[in-house]
Design a protein that fits this description.
It contains 19 helices and 70 strands. It is mostly beta strands. Among the domains are: about 180 residues, no CATH class; about 110 residues, no CATH class. InterPro entries: YhdP (IPR011836), YhdP_central (IPR025263).
Length: about 1300
């Protein structure tokens, strides 16, 4: 069994091997034989020519014939194949023809089956005969009469591939330009039932090429059997020349350069679907007259014809540029179906940019169908914009039956009566007679020029329906909802029109909630209210929250102004926290909770609460009455008010009321405090219009009123307040404070008279500060005052009258101005102000009166005593009159204090409010009794007048005549001295008077007549000074203020036989006055001088000098030698010491009385030497004064008979001595003086001299101790010359 299987497998293996080997051997034999036979093909060229001529019927020339094997297929190559000419046409020459034969199919079917037929280098000329026949010129010889084209097609279908290359092609077609192609390539590939044909042509005379491809399914033998897919690509210039010549198009292509590609499918010989893509850099449309250039044109279009009879043309993409701009609509499609004689159609479009399309249409230069011209004009005016996201139209023939559309962002400009819209989105569906729409806006912007000068914008949505027929039409909505940042609301409306309603009628009902009050005017149709009412509504609502609003309108959409009754128009608002502006220049009310009704042209409102400035207002009503004329429109506002008085001030000053009130009344400003009561405002809306009216009826608590021009402030004022813009202000009773004092009074206005009356007591300092009157500085205390203030009203000027008894006021001023506080002196001040002019009149008891004109410059006239006021000068003050008593020092201080202190930090022109020369113009006073620095003058006349930049004061009386020069900026204690020049001064012998007597009759020391701190800085020059008839000559000095007093430099003068030259310092402290003289004192009659000083005449001489530094506790003209302190250096020339028997003889002080003892010792008689006193050659010495204690350390007295040296002390008050006196007597010479007594005496002297000799000369110095009373001093010899 095993062997049998092995044998069977071996047998099968051998059979299979032979089965494979035999075909391989046969194939190898076939290849070897065929290759050998191909080498013999060139030898059969002529035989082939003869065979073809026999088969075709015309001769054929073949220049070269070759054969080769192409794999298993034989391949024949013919070169230079020439076909004969026909009817004078040139012969057809094929440069190279290659044929690859499929051997077995050809032998089996005995028909040529080619693997490939390749033709290279041929000239083809496509010709269309006038009878419509199409043929290739040069191939006429190949046509067979009576031949069946189907056989030709079958033959072509059997060949695997047919290829024509390097062919030269020309086209001759009636109506088309001739075409000469430099290159033609044709290929046909057959694969079973799939047949692919490709043709490519390149023109040689222009940029032009054609690439065509066709894929055929099956083996169609006629057009109805054709099922194929094709592709055509045409690219080049002047493509419009290839369009049919006999075309009857409304528009034609004048130029077309670019590329056209088409894809299509043919079923049953008809084009079932296709696609065209056009790319044209340049193209031009024309109607024969106008041209429309196109650039960068790109078009994609689809065509489909269904088996159900429906056809469709779609443009999927279209872009380009025209003179009207870019073109880029979305895809559109048109479908149609023919049903009998009728054709139904359907149009669909997507993403259509309306603005681009309408812009193209608006500038379209060609004629449009009837009716579209008007549409184009409207499009130009309104410029619609937006996108039709989808649009569907359906109809039959030229009739539209249904319409559906979905749109987004639609917009069009407003023009005349047609509103504009923007941001409209939604959809609609319907027919030409009725339909429904849904409108959305995110946001929707509406422009209605006849109603608003601005667009309205809101998020909007809601349904809409319409209907129209031959008689009427209507449009109505469902619930329309709108919302934006300003408010949200709902509305319903219906508009009816038609033949019976030539003017459409509108019915509108709308509700608004959550509104922004500041935007209310944005939604009021102000363009329809071109009158003051519209102007008011446009600015009235400036803030707040609209809780709810309702609109109602019913009536014609257009109505004549005098037919307002034909419509109903109402708007009702309920708002809170509203900001309401009454008028543009008036303050706005805030935080208003109001209910506003607009009924036609009348506006009313009720406000539960609100705020005007910082004032709470309640129960407010607002009414804009309907009037016949627009310029009569006004607004009436009234309600309760409770708020700060400053708001009332703002109402008067920050509103147009400021132009209605007098300027003087506006000077009064309300500051602190509160006012409550009823407020009424009646204000015109038109300009010019009715006069405004303001009424305030309430009460003020704790008010503060301030007048800056008057510099007056009233505080804590409490009063009922009534103000009427035409009748003025009335405060029947008021209380408050002014100038720091309480007052009571009233403010009443009756007709043109508006009077404020106040009574109270005012601190004088506050009054002085108010009046800015530094010259009132001497006054102090509390002033009882009655004030009458005539307020400016209806042309009346401001007037103030102040009356007072001045009781309680102390006037610290020179007589006659001064007064004590308990003295009553009835006075009155009247202040008148009209415009910028201010006049003041002053009546000061019986003292005097004055009249002043305030301002720049200041002018005034003042009179003391009885008589008429002097004329008012152009500037400055004129002072005249008569006074009973006056003090020069006091008046000098007073006048000096009128001069402002110059501020070194300011320019000189700004040193003070006014210059002294501007303040005082002239002074002329008669003074019955004048105190001139302690001296009383009778019947004096004082004058003062400016001289240059200084002042010159004059004084004249029987006792004195002189002038005072006050420099600019003079202050009594300043650094600029006045100059005092006295030409005549007559004083009594004792000008200062004696002391006063006490109760016991003892004389007491009087107080100094003047304080040194009151002595002004001055330079004094006295030319003729007489004291008690005694001429004192000239005095001069420079008085300069020092701390606590005054210093007199360069003092020169004579007084009581004394000539003084030095410096005097005069001060005053709490302990009293003190004087100090430093300088020299000389006397030509020392005895008289000592006697005038109430001092004993200790020395008699006409040559005495002393250098002193002495001080005493009193004023300078009353020195007390018992109160002197300081030092003195004495230098006296020839003098005489009086008789020692005198009560105050210095000789007694010197102990000269002991000469008697010496006489007794010497038995000599010298009585004739000291009987009348001691003659001296000179006295000098130093003294120190300590009150009544006089101390000398070395007093030297030289005389012919003796020399004295004195040291010790003297008590001037007690007139006691405690001194040591050294007396030196030169006896050797002096004793011979005794010879004058006679010979006996002279002989005795000679004997003594001889006895003692030199010893007598050496023992002439004697020392004494002198003590005790001046009158009887005790002289004790302490050292004698005989001892």
């Amino acid at each position: 069994m095993t062997n049998r299987s092995a044998r069977w497998r071996n047998t099968l293996r051998r059979q299979l091997w032979w089965l494979v080997a035999v075909p391989v051997l046969l194939l190898a034999a076939y290849v070897v034989v065929a290759r050998q036979l191909m080498l013999l093909v060139p030898d059969y060229r002529q035989d082939l020519e003869a065979l073809l001529e026999q088969r075709l019927g015309f001769p054929i020339e073949i220049e070269d014939l070759r054969g080769e094997m192409d794999g298993l297929s034989p391949r024949f190559q013919l070169r230079g194949l020439t076909l004969p000419d026909a009817d004078g046409e040139p012969s057809l020459r094929l440069d190279q023809v290659a044929v690859s034969v499929k051997v077995l199919p050809t032998l089996w079917h005995r028909q040529p089956y080619l693997r490939e037929l390749s033709v290279r280098g041929v000239d083809l000329h496509l010709v269309r005969d006038p009878d419509g026949g199409i043929h290739l010129r040069g191939l006429e010889a190949l046509r067979r009469d009576g031949g069946d084209p189907r056989d030709t097609l079958r033959t072509l279908y059997r060949q695997d591939r047919i290829l024509i290359e390097d062919a030269r092609f020309s086209l001759d077609w009636p109506g088309l330009p001739p075409l000469a192609a430099s290159s033609l390539t044709l290929a046909m590939v057959n694969d079973g039932d799939q047949h692919d044909l490709s043709v490519r042509v390149e023109a040689r005379d222009r940029p032009f090429s054609v690439d065509a491809r066709l894929s055929v399914e099956g083996e169609p033998l006629d057009l109805k059997q054709l099922d194929a897919r094709g592709y055509l690509d045409v690219q080049g210039e002047r493509l419009q020349e290839w369009l049919p010549e006999g075309r009857d198009w409304p528009l034609d292509l004048a130029t077309l350069d670019g590329r056209v590609r088409a894809w299509g499918r043919v079923r049953g010989g008809e084009l079932s679907d296709g696609q065209v893509r056009l790319t044209a850099p340049d193209a031009t449309l024309t109607d024969g007259t106008h041209q429309w250039p196109l650039s960068d044109l790109n078009l994609d279009a689809l065509w489909r014809h269904g088996s159900d009879g429906e056809s469709q043309l779609s443009v999927t993409s279209l872009t380009g540029e025209t003179p009207a701009g870019a073109v880029a609509p979305g895809p559109v499609a048109l479908r149609w179906r023919s049903e009998g004689e009728h054709r139904r159609w359907r149009f669909e479009g997507r993403d259509l940019a309306i603005h681009a399309l309408t812009r193209q249409l608006a500038q379209w230069p060609f004629a449009l169908p009837e009716g579209l011209d008007t549409v184009r004009d409207r499009l130009r005016e309104h410029e619609p914009r937006g996108v039709l996201e989808a649009v569907y139209l359906q109809g039959e023939e030229q009739r539209v039956e249904t319409l559906q559309a979905r749109f987004a962002g639609l917009a069009s400009d407003a023009l005349d009566r047609v509103p504009g819209v923007a941001g409209l989105s939604g959809w609609l569906a319907g027919t030409p007679t009725e339909g429904v729409a849904r409108i959305n806006g995110e946001p929707l912007e509406l422009t209605v020029p006849r109603l608003y000068d601005h667009p309205l914008s809101a998020a909007f949505n809601g349904p809409l329906r319409w209907h129209t027929d031959d008689q009427r039409w209507w449009v109505e909505t469902g619930v329309l909802r709108a919302a934006n940042a300003d408010a949200r609301g709902v509305a319903m409306l219906r508009v009816d029109g038609g033949e019976q309603r030539p003017v459409p009628e509108l019915r509108l009902l709308a509700d608004v909630a959550d509104g922004n009050g500041a935007r209310a005017a944005h939604y009021i149709p102000l363009e329809k209210l071109k009158d003051p009412l519209g102007d008011w509504l446009g600015q009235a609502f400036q803030g707040g929250h609209l809780d709810r609003g309702r609109f109602l309108y019913q009536g014609p959409v257009k109505i004549e102004p005098d037919r307002q009754q034909d419509r109903t128009f109402q708007m009702l608002f309920q708002a809170r926290d509203l900001t309401l502006s009454f008028l543009p220049d008036w303050p706005a009310a805030t935080d208003v909770d109001a209910r506003v009704l607009i009924d036609g042209r009348r506006v009313t409102g009720q406000a539960r609460r609100g705020r005007l400035f910082n004032t709470e207002v309640t129960d407010v009503s607002v009414d804009l009455p309907e009037v016949s004329a627009a310029n009569e429109r006004h607004i009436v506002i009234q309600g309760r008010a409770d708020g700060p008085a400053a708001d009332l001030d703002r109402l008067f000053h920050d509103t147009p009321l400021s132009k209605q009130l007098p300027e003087g009344l506006l000077d009064w400003r309300f500051r602190d405090g509160r006012v409550n009561g009823h407020l009424l405002l009646d204000l015109p809306l038109a300009r010019p219009g009715p006069a405004p009216m303001v009424i305030v009826d309430g009460r003020g608590e704790g008010l503060t009123l301030r007048s800056d021009p008057l510099n007056l402030t009233l505080t804590e004022v409490t009063a009922p307040v009534y103000f009427h813009l035409k009748r003025g202000i009335t405060l029947r009773s008021l209380e408050g404070r002014a100038l720091g004092a309480r007052f009571q009074g009233s403010w009443l206005t009756r007709g043109p008279d508006s009077q404020m009356q106040l009574t109270g007591k005012v601190d004088v300092k506050r009054l002085r500060d108010w009046l800015d009157a530094d010259w009132l500085a001497p006054a102090s205390g509390t002033l009882p005052l009655e004030l009458d203030l005539a307020m400016p009203w209806q042309g009346r000027p401001f007037r103030l009258e102040a009356r007072s008894t001045l009781q309680g006021v102390k006037v610290d001023a020179p007589a006659p101005l001064g007064k004590p506080a308990d003295e009553a002196r009835g006075s009155r001040l009247v202040w008148r102000q009209q415009g910028q002019r201010k006049d003041v009149s002053v009546f000061y008891g019986q003292v005097g009166e004055g009249r002043f004109r305030l301002g720049d410059p200041l002018a005034g006239a003042l009179r003391f005593g009885a008589g008429e006021l002097p004329p008012l000068p152009a500037r400055g003050l004129t002072i005249e009159g008569r006074v009973a008593r006056a003090s020069a020092a006091d008046w000098l201080d007073f006048i000096g204090n009128l001069t402002p202190v110059e501020d070194p930090g300011k320019p000189k022109s700004q040193a003070g409010a006014s210059d002294t020369r501007d303040l005082i113009n002239r002074v002329s006073l008669s003074i019955d009794r004048l105190d001139l620095f302690g001296s009383e003058l009778a019947s004096a006349r004082f004058s003062a007048a400016p001289r240059g930049r200084d002042w010159e004061l004059g004084l004249a009386s029987p006792a004195v005549a002189g002038t005072v020069r006050l420099p600019e900026g003079y202050r009594p204690r300043g650094d600029k001295p006045l100059t005092l020049t006295v030409n005549r001064l007559r004083l009594p012998a004792n000008p200062l008077g004696g002391g006063d007597a006490d109760d016991d009759g003892a004389e007491t020391k009087s107080a100094p007549p003047i304080a040194p701190t009151r002595v002004p800085i001055m330079d004094v020059d006295l030319h003729d000074l007489r004291l008690g008839g005694q001429a004192l000559g000239a005095w001069s000095g420079r008085l300069r203020p020092v701390e606590q007093g005054v210093r007199v430099d360069d003092l020169r003068g004579q007084w009581n036989h004394l000539n003084l030259a030095g410096q005097l310092t005069w001060t005053e402290t709490a302990r009293g006055q003190r004087s100090r003289y430093q300088g020299s004192i000389a006397s030509d009659d020392l005895k008289a001088a000592l006697t005038a000083l109430d001092m004993p005449a200790l020395v008699v001489t006409d040559d005495a000098r002393a250098t002193v530094d002495l001080a005493w506790n009193d004023w300078p003209l009353r020195p007390d030698y018992l109160d002197l302190n300081g030092t003195a250096t004495l230098d006296i020339g020839e003098c005489q010491l009086p008789d020692p028997e005198g009560r105050t003889s210095v000789l007694k002080v010197l102990g000269i009385v002991n000469l008697a003892n010496l006489q007794r010792r010497l038995r000599l008689d010298f009585s004739d030497l000291y009987r009348e006193g001691l003659s001296c050659d000179g006295i000098d010495g130093d003294f120190q004064f300590k009150g009544p204690l006089l101390t000398t350390r070395k007093l030297a007295i030289a005389s012919p008979s003796a020399a004295f040296e004195v040291t010790g002390q003297a008590q001037l008050a007690e007139r006691t001595l405690d001194m040591e006196v050294a007396m030196t007597l030169p006896l050797s010479s002096n004793l011979y003086a005794g010879c004058l007594a006679g010979p006996a005496v002279c002989a005795g002297i000679f004997v003594v001299e001889r006895l003692w000799g030199d010893k007598l000369d050496k023992t002439t110095t004697m020392k004494y101790q002198v003590s005790g009373l001046w009158r009887e001093p005790s002289v004790k010899e302490t050292e004698g010359f005989l001892e």
